[in-house]
Amino acid sequence: MYKAVFIDIDGTLRNDLGKISDRTKEAIKNVAQAGIKIIICSGRPVRTAIEVSKECFASEYVITSNGAYGYNYKENKCVFKNPMEKEACVKIYNLAKENDINFIMNTEKGRFVLKQTNKKTDTLLDEPIESFVEKIDIMQCLIQDKSFEKIRDLKPEIEKIKNVGIKNQSKALTNPKEKPREITYFDIADIKTSKGYGVENVCKALNIDLKDAISIGDDYNDVSMFEKTGLSIAMGNANDEVKSKAKYVTLTNNENGVAFVLENLIKSKGESVC
Predict the structure, then answer these.
(1) Are residues 125 and 145 in the same domain?
(2) Three-state DSSP class for 22?
(3) CA dist., res. 18 & res. 172, Å (int)
(4) Does a structural domain hold residue 273?
(5) pLDDT, tens digit (0-9, with 9 covering 90-100), for 223-262
(6) Final residue of a domain: which of 138, 162, 190?
(7) Which of 13, 47, 35, 40 is nearest to 198 (CA)?
(8) Sheet of 164-169: strands edge to edge?
């Protein structure tokens, strides 16, 4: 019997309008009531992941920053964390500042930024980066700008930095057929960090065998989850390469693909989604 379902947010749980459907929320509620843990697993910071988890009636566990940080928000307890090396954070910050590009740090205490863009979610860094990283662990750094060219040209410089890796990025940076959107970005974390790493650590904390877990996602950063769980499901809106890494493909995020999977899971009493 499956005991946990790990679900990505953007392009998976949410539709293209950024909404979670009532049908999906109801399916999650029913699965949770059956004793199966629904766990949000996202590249987004902890605050956003918690908000989404509460909105859709998922469990108290969230995996954030592409697998760098696991948190139980009901008990206010860190489940695991894999922070970035301080020296790497300083180097990335300096590159962003030199190129006048926005730099964001995901931490346990919230998001800290080089440029203030959202006062509700972000705190402006008001001290030297060198002293800041000595006090607070950085789970993930984000580089973003309205200029596609700026981000594209900075990417090779970031890739030269030791012990970090790009975990997620705008599709236009990897696919020349994709048109750049209003904001171009990429996420950077410790080289060992991945969503699969996060799934493995949460399952260990919950004493759940990985073969009894399901993962659902739509993008390249979800593939590491697919490689860890007993059952992997790609969204119908995922590209063919991501789909090829999963054992099963559901409907798109605009067709309630997550709800379809969970409804079948309930019908089978936790044994199957097909």
Answers:
(1) yes
(2) helix
(3) 20
(4) no
(5) 999 999 999 999 999 999 999 999 999 999 999 999 999 9
(6) 190
(7) 40
(8) 122-124, 110-113, 102-107, 138-145, 184-190, 164-169
